[in-house]
Amino acid sequence: MCNFRSLVLVLLLCSAALAAAQGSTNRTRLWQTLNGNAPLVIAHGGFSGLFPDSSSIAYNLAVATSLPNVILWCNVQLTKDRAGICFPNLRLENASDIASVFPNNSNTYSVNGVVMNGWFSVDFTLNELGNVFLTQGIYSRSDKFYGYQILTVQDVAKTLAPPGLWLNIEHDEFFSRHNLSMRSFVLSAFRSFIVNYVSSPEF
C-alpha cells in the first residue's frame, strides 16, 4: 500500500510540475536555442529514473507527463533473427533477468577492441527474449517495477505511438560482424513508421 501511495505522489508531483511549466509559457519571448524554439525533451529510455529503462511503463509515463512533443529515445540492439529491440545496454544482463532465465548462455565477444563476457542479443531470438524481463540497471533503485517485457522498436513506434522517436545505434560494427545489418533494419523502420532522429557514433 505504501508503494502505491508513493507512486501516486510521484505522479501528482509530475502533473503539477507539467501544469506549472505549461501555464508559464510566454509565446512572445524566444528561447535561447539555435533556432529560438523551445528545447526538445528527449526521454532516454522513457521515465527511466523510476521504472526499468525502455519498459512500456517508462515510455508511457514519459509521454503522459512530458511536453506534447517529447521524443522517445531507443537504444537499438538486434536479435539473432534480425528483430530490433529497445534495450539500454549491449550486455543484456545489465538491465534484465536474462542471467537467471538462460544461465548457461553467456558468451565472450570483442566489442570495439574490448573483450566482454555476458549475454548479448545476437545470441537470442526475439521469441526467446519473450521469457526475459527488464530490471533496473542501477541496483540501488527500487525493484518494485520489475516484470516488464523487452519491447521491439516496432512496439514503441506503433503501439505506444510517441510524438517523436529517436533511434540510437551504438554498436553497428559489432552487429555487422554477426551478419546483422543495422542499416537494413533502419531503412526497414523508415518504411514502416516515422523515425524523427537516428544517431550513432559509428556511422
From TrEMBL:
Keywords: Glycerol metabolism, Hydrolase, Signal. The keyword Signal applies. Its EC number is 3.1.4.46. It comes from the Eukaryota. InterPro entries: GP_PDE_dom, PLC-like_Pdiesterase_TIM-brl. The keyword Signal applies. One of its GO terms (biological process) is lipid metabolic process. Residues 39-203 form the GP-PDE domain. Residues 1-21 form the signal peptide. PROSITE patterns: GP_PDE. It catalyses: a sn-glycero-3-phosphodiester + H2O = an alcohol + sn-glycerol 3-phosphate + H(+). Belongs to the glycerophosphoryl diester phosphodiesterase family. This is glycerophosphodiester phosphodiesterase.
